[in-house]
């Protein structure tokens, strides 16, 4: 048991979590709307997996020293099940594909998903323990064009930010390539062991490929002369990578081959890629927005009886919203209010919801202060919000079956019967 929380502690969000409200809430909603819309145009269908999975779903496909394993929120239930909050989406989608026999359907299966994910990492600017991702997965085919479709769909989603986007891409080849390449890589690193960072010296034994992706300045210098996997590619792997690049060229997607771009997990093969912003001036920081790759070996790593060829990506929604232009993602539900509804007195308030329903049927968003009684206070709210019209409904109007529609800019107003209100408003529109 940890230290008992004070009342002040209990009335704050847990470390690394945050509330999302106001403009931030609607921007997030707008992003998911736009991302889903683009995904559907490219042939994807939605899937929602549980926030909680059996821990083995994630552990079987990951190395024990992988950050995702170390940072998982895991616990044992009263019934003895060991569960984890999902740290990523790919394994959950693969579990669903296997569980529901999707392999018997026409292949490949195109799926998109989005929502909250969880990692117990150190909170810092723009990074949270509950973070949001949008993902794409194509399962059931080894074809190169599917790698390109996933990249293109992700690229088109990111273009909606208003920023210039570039793809960095590499190939891991197949399992035979990697065996040959790892021999060459380890041999190279042994010659330069003393120049590597301490953590990377340990990785020479546990996971040499991850040294290529090191952010340690000492190791990065060594990596500049490291052998590249391209030199060991067999004919099949060369052809796969060549075709993916040809598809990207045909779609005019800007990319750069990055030999240090790897995945440290054995189930990845062939294409790996990441999306970055492009710096438009000297001091602008280049930011990673997401990435993915082909993971043909994941299903077997999870315990399935055969491989399921698959490729996918995940986009970091929090980072995307941080860099997006101000009006990049505006959800359809968020429309500016056209009317401010003002009611005065008990009789008017009792009938107010019926008039609000008339406006809803016309798909007209409104604002109101049904809890206030003062006409001046309600009008002041309307003007502060820059709403063009007000509908005033007082005791007299309630008895007469009318409302007053006032143009808040010209101060011109009309008395309109409730029965004619729909027709009147349509003329205003």
Can you offer a commentary on this structure?
- By secondary structure, the chain is of the alpha+beta class.
- It folds into two domains: 258 residues, BirA Bifunctional Protein, domain 2 (2-Layer Sandwich), CATH 3.30.930.10; 90 residues, 3-Layer(aba) Sandwich (Rossmann fold), CATH 3.40.50.
- 37% of the residues lie in helices and 21% in strands.
- An eight-stranded mixed β-sheet has the order 1-5-6-11-10-9-7-8, with helices on both faces. Strands 13-12-14-15-16 form a five-stranded mixed β-sheet, sandwiched between helices. Strands 2-4-3 form a three-stranded antiparallel β-sheet.
- α2 runs antiparallel to α6 and α6 runs parallel beside α10.
- The protein is elongated.
- It starts with 6 loop residues before the first helix and ends with a helix.
Give keywords.
alpha+beta, Rossmann fold, about 35% helix, about 425 residues, 2 domains, elongated
Task: Report a brief summary of the structure.
The chain is about 35% helix and about 20% strand. It has about 425 residues and is of the alpha+beta class. Helix 2 packs antiparallel against helix 6 and helix 6 packs parallel to helix 10 (about 235-250).
**Order of strands side by side in the largest beta sheet?**
1-5-6-11-10-9-7-8
- On the 0 to 100 scale, the average pLDDT is 90
Going by CATH, the architecture of the largest domain would be 2-Layer Sandwich
Structural class: alpha+beta
Distance between the termini: 62 Å
What level of helicity do the residues show?
A: 25-40%
Radius of gyration: 28 Å
> What count of domains describes the coordinates?
2
Question: How many strand segments?
Answer: 16
Q: Percent of residues in beta strands?
A: 15-25%
**Helix count?**
16
- Main β-sheet: number of strands, strand sense, barrel status? 8 strands, mixed
What would the CATH topology of the largest domain be? Answer: BirA Bifunctional Protein, domain 2
**For the record, what is the CATH homologous superfamily label of the largest domain?**
Bira Bifunctional Protein, Domain 2
Determine and state the CATH class of the largest domain.
Alpha Beta
User: What are the low-pLDDT stretches, counting only 5+ consecutive residues below 50?
Assistant: none
Shape: elongated
């Amino acid at each position: 048991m940890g230290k008992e929380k004070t009342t002040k502690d209990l009335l704050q969000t847990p470390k690394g979590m945050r509330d999302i409200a106001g403009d931030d809430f609607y921007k997030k909603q707008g992003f998911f709307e736009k991302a889903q819309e683009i995904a559907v145009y490219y042939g994807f269908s939605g899937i929602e997996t549980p926030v909680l999975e059996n821990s083995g779903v994630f552990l079987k496909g990951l190395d024990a020293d992988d950050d995702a394993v170390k940072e998982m929120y895991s616990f044992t239930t009263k019934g003895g099940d060991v569960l984890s909050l999902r740290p990523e989406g790919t394994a959950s989608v693969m579990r669903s594909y296997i569980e529901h026999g999707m392999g018997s359907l026409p292949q490949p299966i195109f799926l998109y998903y989005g929502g909250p994910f969880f990692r117990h990492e150190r909170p810092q600017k723009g990074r949270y323990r509950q973070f949001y991702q949008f993902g794409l997965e194509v399962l059931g085919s080894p074809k190169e064009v599917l790698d390109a479709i996933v990249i293109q769909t992700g690229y088109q989603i990111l273009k909606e930010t208003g920023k210039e986007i570039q793809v960095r891409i590499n190939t891991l080849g197949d399992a035979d390539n990697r065996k040959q390449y790892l021999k060459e890589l380890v041999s190279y690193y042994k010659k330069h062991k003393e120049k590597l960072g301490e953590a990377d010296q340990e990785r020479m034994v546990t996971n040499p490929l991850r040294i290529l992706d090191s952010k340690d300045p000492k190791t990065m210098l060594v990596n500049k002369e490291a052998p590249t996997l391209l030199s060991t590619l067999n004919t099949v792997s060369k052809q796969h990578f060549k075709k993916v690049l040809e598809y990207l060229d045909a779609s005019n997607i800007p990319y750069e081959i990055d030999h240090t771009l790897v995945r440290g997990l054995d189930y990845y093969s062939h294409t790996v890629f990441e999306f970055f912003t492009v710096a438009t001036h000297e001091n602008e920081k280049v930011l990673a927005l997401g990435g993915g790759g082909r993971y043909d070996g994941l299903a077997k790593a999870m315990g399935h009886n055969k491989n399921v060829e698959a490729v996918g990506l995940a986009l970091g929604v929090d980072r995307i919203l941080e860099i997006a232009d101000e009006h990049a993602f505006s959800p359809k539900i968020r429309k500016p209010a056209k009317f401010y509804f003002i009611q005065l007195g008990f009789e008017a308030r009792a009938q107010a919801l019926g008039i609000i329903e008339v406006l809803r049927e016309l798909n007209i968003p409104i604002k109101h202060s049904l809890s206030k009684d003062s006409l001046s206070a309600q009008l002041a709210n309307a003007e502060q919000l820059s709403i063009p019209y007000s509908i005033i409904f007082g005791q007299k109007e309630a008895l007469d079956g009318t409302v007053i529609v006032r143009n808040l800019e010209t101060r011109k107003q009309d008395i309109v019967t409730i029965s004619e209100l729909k027709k009147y408003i349509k003329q205003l529109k």
